[in-house]
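> call design_seq(struct)
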């Protein structure tokens, strides 16, 4: 065990997933943990970027605003990780594995352009899914310039646009063009905590394994999701003919905005009231003199896989570690009896049971380790699982990774072939459960998919470590456990539980 604790670990990314992972590793006794970020400070998407909001808590249901979260991660990085362990304004240019537990990272200082080759025993990617802009070539800044568009073209990650003034001219300044927008959830008053933070939503959404009688019953249920959608539209009084209703189906998509309590000055209210001009359904195909008139174009076109990191991984390393996409193999439709999945939207070419599947997928075990690399215990990913409870997923995932690196007694595939077979099965499930999932191609936010079913995911990770699952960590009975709040306090002692288990097994 002491040899493992002496291993050096590089964490690429210093956002929430990277910070939580570093904290868990340090708590477990790893001595040499180093984080790298190209940003000027830690926090990732919650990095303070030069604007100030003096309110400490929004008035819509008591939710924290951005500044409070930014402050939290600044303090977390300072108090629980340590500034000396975080190298900021550093680009990771190349990640190469020379042999097992022998990695070389080529990094470059953003300001001085000085390069270094740094050696580590293990690497964890925590680069998130909102790091690298995805810009279609036909509407890129380069094409805009070539076609004679003289205005500014930027991606939405580059900053916000502020319109000063509240008169008619200000209200006419913003035009939004889309074919289909995100689904959303909204309520007129805060939902009770036993709904928002319990298993109610997760039990209404089928998991790859139906583990309880209640799940086996509720996976036949449709009315719950239709009710949520209609209640959200009603909360904002969105007309039947509004383009805001052109969304993906809530049950079938991971593109969902949780608005919480309705906001009178929020996007949906502003769009409903005509303060934002909606040109939909339409697709922007390029720049012409006869198109919409604009001086600034903001490309809110999503994000690409951040594992590119300026082509950081060599082809050899990508292949040996197993982070390249591979064809999705056909197989039996094991979930034919899931009545809730009987009528999917017509958005994908994939049909389980076909002789050929026209998709390629990333193959990860539990969304944390490339299946091909499962026996090497020197590479992992955290923060690449699509879920509605990121903080909980990051923390349980960090404990799983630390257990994996320490070589603790875990429930793991015995061979890489077994891990790959399991990952292929999970990919077939994901393509059936969320038909649009693999079309976008952002593997750094899609290595694992536990969107509504994050408690089931946490159960599986805890059971892998031979710890009590969440269902056994509360005082509910067979009738009340679905409504019992899943609280971070329930996983507060995971590090101590694992330490005691290690001592008993040694």
């Amino acid at each position: 065990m002491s040899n493992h604790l002496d291993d050096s670990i590089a964490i690429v990314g210093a956002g929430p997933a990277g910070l939580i992972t570093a904290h868990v590793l340090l708590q477990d006794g790893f001595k040499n943990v180093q984080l790298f970020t190209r940003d000027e400070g830690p926090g990732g998407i919650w990095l303070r970027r030069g604007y100030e909001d003096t309110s400490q808590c929004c008035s819509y249901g008591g939710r924290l605003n951005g500044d409070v979260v930014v402050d939290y991660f600044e303090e977390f990085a300072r108090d629980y990780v340590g500034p000396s362990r975080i190298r900021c304004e550093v680009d990771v240019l190349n990640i190469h594995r020379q042999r097992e537990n022998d990695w070389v990272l080529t990094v470059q200082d953003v300001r001085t352009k000085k390069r270094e080759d740094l050696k580590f025993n293990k690497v964890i990617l925590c680069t998130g899914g909102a790091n690298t802009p995805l810009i279609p070539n036909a509407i890129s800044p380069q094409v805009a310039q070539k076609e004679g568009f003289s205005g500014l073209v930027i991606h939405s990650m580059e900053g916000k646009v502020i319109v000063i003034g509240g008169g008619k001219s200000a209200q006419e300044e913003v035009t939004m063009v889309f074919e289909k927008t995100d689904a959303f959830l909204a309520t007129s008053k805060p939902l009770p905590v036993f709904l928002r933070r319990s298993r109610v939503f997760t039990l209404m959404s089928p998991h790859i394994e139906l583990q309880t009688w209640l799940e086996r019953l509720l996976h036949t249920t449709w009315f719950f999701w239709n009710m949520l959608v209609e209640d959200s539209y009603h909360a904002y009084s969105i007309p039947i003919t509004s383009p805001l209703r052109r969304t993906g189906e809530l049950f079938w998509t991971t593109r969902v905005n949780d608005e919480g309590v309705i906001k009178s000055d929020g996007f949906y209210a502003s769009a409903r009231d005509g303060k934002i001009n909606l040109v939909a359904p339409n697709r922007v195909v390029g720049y012409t003199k006869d198109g919409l008139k604009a001086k600034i174009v903001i490309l809110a076109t999503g994000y690409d896989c951040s594992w590119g990191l300026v082509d950081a991984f060599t082809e050899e390393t990508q292949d040996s570690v197993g982070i390249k996409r591979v064809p999705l193999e056909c197989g039996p439709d094991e979930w034919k009896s899931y009545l809730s999945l009987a009528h999917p939207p017509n958005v994908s070419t994939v049909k389980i049971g076909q002789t050929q599947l026209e998709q390629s997928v990333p193959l990860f075990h539990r969304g944390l380790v490339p299946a091909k690399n499962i026996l090497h215990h020197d590479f992992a990913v955290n923060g690449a699982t699509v879920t509605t409870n990121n903080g909980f997923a990051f923390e349980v995932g960090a404990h799983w990774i630390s257990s994996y690196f320490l070589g603790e007694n875990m429930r793991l595939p015995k061979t890489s072939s077994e891990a790959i077979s399991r990952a292929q099965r999970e990919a077939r499930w994901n393509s059936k459960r969320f038909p649009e999932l693999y079309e976008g191609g952002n593997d750094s936010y899609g290595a694992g998919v536990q969107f509504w079913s994050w408690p089931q995911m946490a159960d599986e990770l805890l059971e892998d470590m031979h710890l009590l699952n969440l269902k056994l960590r509360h005082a509910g009975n067979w009738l009340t456990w679905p409504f019992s709040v899943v609280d971070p306090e329930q996983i507060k002692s995971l590090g101590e539980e694992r330490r005691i288990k290690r001592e008993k097994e040694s």
